[in-house]
Amino acid sequence: MDNPKFFVTSIERGAYHDGPGLRTVVFFQGCPLHCAWCCNPETQPFRPVLLHEGKRCVACGNCVPHCPQQALSLREGRLHVDRAQCISCGRCVPVCPGGAYSLSSEIMSSEEILAVVMKDADYYRATGGGLTLSGGEPLCQRGVEVLLFQAKQANLTTCVETTAALSYKVLESVLPYVDYFYIDLKHSDRDILLRETGADLDLVTSNIGKLMDKGANVTLRTAVIPWYNDDLSTLRSIFHLALALGVTTYVLLPFHQLGRAKYAKLGRPYTLEHLKTLTPEDVSEAASLGRQMGLDVRIGG
Ligand code: SF4
Ligand code: SF4
């Protein structure tokens, strides 16, 4: 597989929070988990999905006859998308005069991705930056090891943001080409973790342990979510787990609602609007606790 193809939801140039230096972050379609606080919900399904932006829609009905699935209809002056019928063919996208539609991802080859990434090659050299793979779960993409290999050939530093909720064989296949792993440790209670995210704690921790045994550079990250894991006893337990796995580099991510508008575009309910967004100050006590326990804790992206 010389030039594998991927479902890419977006490419963000000039990022400073997803690994060292200036980075280009490539977001991929598809994730095995279903966290309610996900800020990229369009990346969760393993196929492209249709987004419809209500404020761009003037309910002209122009799109309705173009849908081969009869998924579109006007009801009481509003456009309705029957998500169960939509096959993400994209035929409605170009016919909307307001540009209300888009598909969540497009197919890009590794060559096409790297052509975008290399536009900032001078900045990577100056800052130690490079390519970060994110998502979704980037390691669910077939051929991702080829993309990472090609990035190393181009002298880029590589970072992978992963759930680690997948077979170790996949992690092993990319290990030679990854400089930095950013892995989510969302909870220390296996039942809560499974119920709220779908992740198997034993699988995640086993994978982290194996990566540490291989000398991988692992940073653990916890999104601090008010009803889920923000109390100090839960965070203490998560930090203990990290230390037991031999990881000392830690990032706390305060809860935010920046992805909220995307849920409306996907026709999905956003279930966390009642929760208070957190500031760095709100998680400073937790960060201090982690530092007292021996972790190198940073707050932020
Ligand atoms: S993407 Fe295709 S199937 Fe889905 S609503 Fe648009 S035209 Fe219909
Ligand atoms: S064509 Fe665009 S503006 Fe018109 S009803 Fe369809 S989505 Fe709305």
Description:
Helices cover 27% and strands 23% of the residues. The protein folds into two domains: 5-46 and 109-299, Aldolase class I (TIM Barrel); 50-103, 2-Layer Sandwich (Alpha-Beta Plaits). It has 301 residues and is an alpha/beta fold. The radius of gyration is 20 Å and the shape is globular. The protein has helices spanning 110-117, 121-127, 144-153, 168-174, 190-197, 201-213, 232-244, 260-265, 284-292; strands at 5-15, 23-28, 50-52, 72-75, 78-81, 101-103, 106-109, 130-134, 157-162, 180-184, 218-224, 249-254, 296-299. The model has no long low-confidence stretch (mean pLDDT 96). The protein binds iron/sulfur cluster (2 copies).
Quick structural overview:
The chain is an alpha/beta fold and 301 residues long. It is built from nine helices and 13 strands. Helix 7 (232-244) packs parallel to helix 9 (284-292).
Ligands:
iron/sulfur cluster
Instruction: Provide the succession of SSEs.
Output: EEEEEEEHHEHEHEHHEHEHHE
Radius of gyration: 20 Å
Main sheet summary: 9 strands, mixed
The CATH superfamily title of the largest domain: Aldolase class I
Count of the separate structural domains: 2
Strand order of the largest sheet: 7-1-2-8-9-10-11-12-13
Features:
two-stranded antiparallel ribbon, single chain, 27% helix, 301 residues, TIM Barrel, 2 domains, Alpha-Beta Plaits, 23% strand, alpha/beta, binds iron/sulfur cluster
